Amino acid sequence: MNENLLFENEKKRIEYPLSRLFCFMMFIVWQMGIIYYMGPALTIDGNVPLPISMDNTTTLIVAAYIICIILLIIIPDKFVWAARASALVALVTAFGLFMPMAPETLALLLYIQVFCCCFMIGFESATIVFLLKEKTAILHLMLCYPIGYFIIAFIQNEIAPIPFSGFRFGIVIMLIPLTYFYCRLPSENCPRFVKKSDNLIRPKKLLSGAYFLALLGALLGVIGPAVAAEIDHGVSMFYGFAGIAALILYYLYKRREMHPLKTLPFAISIGALGYLMLFMSLYVPALQIPACIFISVSMTACALLPLVILVVVKQYPSRFAVAILMSLAVVAVVVHSSMLEIFRSDLTMLYLSYLAIIIVTAIVYLLVSPFLLGVLNEKLISKETGRAVPVFSSRLSVLTERELEVADLISRGYSNRDIAKMLFISEYTVKDHTKNIYHKLDIHSRFELAAIINKK
């Protein structure tokens, strides 16, 4: 199998220090600060309502998503330049908020802020998926994101609301390091996307499973904050405890060498308990706050979506990867809006639907995770040849060289037909090798085989 494209793309990935990632983290603070502050109940200095229409804001958000998706499909390798331009426009308009102006002009500047922060969501994901090394992405998502969550929790506190003067000053403080980050981000490090001439086989099962998991994670990322917004002090608590949960996962990663994707079952289980509490709060209202806290832990499932897609891109560098992720995020918003409309007068069914979604997420994750981890951990770079070589546990020493090749590809989510094409053998031969592997290892499924290969 020709994997030169994958090796070259991996060499291009960037490793950044924490200080640079802190600048990058400002995006989520800016985004959440803008979106939440634009609520119709919030006011300038507590006196004058913001001169914007929520209908116009919604239209701008939808337009920003659609334009971003189109751009990521047509010119995905130019997203760094688009991010630079968007950050600069947002920064200039943020400075404009300090100038005395008519309400119409102020509204225009605020609309531009809304558009830019939503337009750049895809660029943030593209930066993680296409440019960052895996360890750097984990550092950003598991250590920098919690800091961002804590800042959002502070912004959303209901005890001492932030006035508009503080809001606009905060925007500038967030956008200066973010603009610096994108201006220093090398655009030439974008990966070379796969073409038909590369003869790279798509791991269809891995791709379908990963994208389905991404859809469910995006849905949880929409549901969680929506639930928190309905509870007194809920948003602040939600992001505060989400930050604590992410830091715990990072500790397990650094001290216990547990990959974040391996710790997600615990976070999802705690989140499921939270949604169960949310349902029970219909009968015991005191459970609302504990439910909000437990649900916040499942926010890590959404935060790690770019890492899941990074795994997919390392295996199959499709130009559509981030565009698909963004499209799934839009679908998640539409699905949740439809659920709210359908169950408008039936909170019991709505909360049961939330519980069902996180349970399905847990099941899908358990089925897909061994293959995701197989892509992340299956290879090391040989110092002699510079090429990747499989790393197997001692339990697999009973397998022949060909059986090891088949086992390696199975663990990375390839079907029998895919493996036959890659090894230039018949599909029947692949099935025979698979049977022999199962017999020698006393296992019965690809799931078990992937779990053995990924076991340290």
SS-based class: mainly alpha
Shape: globular
Give the count of helical stretches. Answer: 20
Largest sheet: 2 strands, antiparallel
**Fraction of residues in helix:** over 70%
Number of domains: 3
Radius of gyration: 23 Å
Your description of this structure?
By secondary structure, the chain is mainly α. The protein folds into 3 domains: about 1-190; about 200-370, Growth Hormone, Chain: A; about 390-455, Winged helix-like DNA-binding domain superfamily/Winged helix DNA-binding domain (Arc Repressor Mutant, subunit A), CATH 1.10.10.10. About 70% of the residues lie in helices and about 0% in strands. The protein has 20 helices and 4 strands. It has a two-stranded antiparallel ribbon with strand order 1-2. A two-stranded antiparallel ribbon has the order 3-4. A hairpin with a 3-residue loop joins strand 1 (about 45) and strand 2. Helix 17 (about 400-410) crosses helix 20. It is globular, with a radius of gyration of 23 Å. About 45% of the residues are buried. Residues about 40-50 and about 380-390 have low confidence and may be disordered.
Keywords summarizing the entry:
single chain; Growth Hormone, Chain: A; mainly alpha; 3 domains; two-stranded antiparallel sheet; 456 residues; Arc Repressor Mutant, subunit A; two-stranded antiparallel ribbon; 2% strand
Short recap of the structure:
With 456 residues, this protein is mostly helical. The chain has helices spanning 4-12, 18-37, 54-74, 79-96, 103-119, 121-131, 134-155, 164-184, 204-229, 234-255, 260-280, 288-297, 299-303, 305-315, 321-342, 347-377, 401-411, 416-423, 427-441, 446-453, and strands at 43-44, 48-49, 379-381, 388-390.
